[in-house]
Amino acid sequence: MNIQPLAGFNHFYTHHCVTGSMAEVYHFNHHPLTEEMLLGLGEGVGYIYWQQKGAPPFMGGRSQPKPSMEALAAQRTGVKLGSHSTSSSRKAKKTLLEMLNSGQPVMLQVDMGFLPYFDFGGTEYHFGGHTVVACGYDETTDTVLISERDGLYPVPMADLAKARNSKFKPFPPKNRWLTFDFSEKRQPLPEELHTAVHNMATLMLEPPISNFGVKGIRKTAVMLPKWPEQLTADELKWALFNAYIFVSAVGGSGGGMFRYMLSRFLCETAVILQDTRFEDTARAFKTIGDAWEAFANWSKQTSEAENPAAHLTECVAPLQRLADMEAQAWTELKKLLEKV
Length: 340
What we know:
This protein is an alpha+beta fold. The protein has helices spanning 17-28, 35-41, 69-75, 89-101, 157-164, 190-205, 213-223, 227-230, 233-247, 259-273, 277-303, 316-339, and strands at 45-50, 58-62, 80-84, 106-110, 130-138, 143-148, 151-156, 177-181.
């Protein structure tokens, strides 16, 4: 099977599913911004520790601003964004094909557990917050060409329909898709960069609840050693491996809990604002990313240990040091903004 992408669509390797998908749609529409810039403009970097009943504990480096990261990034780049969802798989398919037939790639939210090109080692895994770009279609085989972070994949429409209409929590996709109007596209304004950075720093340093920001990292250090009280032995191993996935580049953070991407965003900001001081904070977050990578590797190794519970206190000191490093870097960044 050889499905060709839409004319003018070029896949490139990306780090994070949401910003990577947005960047591909932006490039297709002659608005070539990096996914790091879209991530930063969308106030997309933060920290969360969360445990929902019936689900493994979750730690992640994405923030969830309101409006959404996608909406903020679009607003600050002159793009009108529409978010759509439907309970009807038939309507979702019809709209998808109409957009592809009009020559426009479509950004979709999906449950990666139903996508045939993912291999979870025989384990059933579901995450409905994943994002891809549909960029081609073959009518004879009813197959959609999907642009993923690492390549192009043909996916039967039946499988894509399952991925789009999945009911698995905590992020059921609800057949969501995005539309973009680039008629008034523009470069971000300096004040918009200031606002985005300020808001990310404020959320990290002054979170509304203790599960977010620097407080959330400290809470993780307290809660993680208690996981054996809440989880079976198998669930504990999976929770540790899940932490590895979402901290490392495997899960789409770009590595280092999104801190490597944040570092590159700050380097771009330094160029746009012609202020080299942002490069100093960029280096600090690169170092923090290295520390998060060390934690990710520890999580993976511990998940493979004969008795993971016996090793959990080993993470307390490194996580507390990470919280200290994050607090210092975000504080310095906020002070820098006050001097601009």
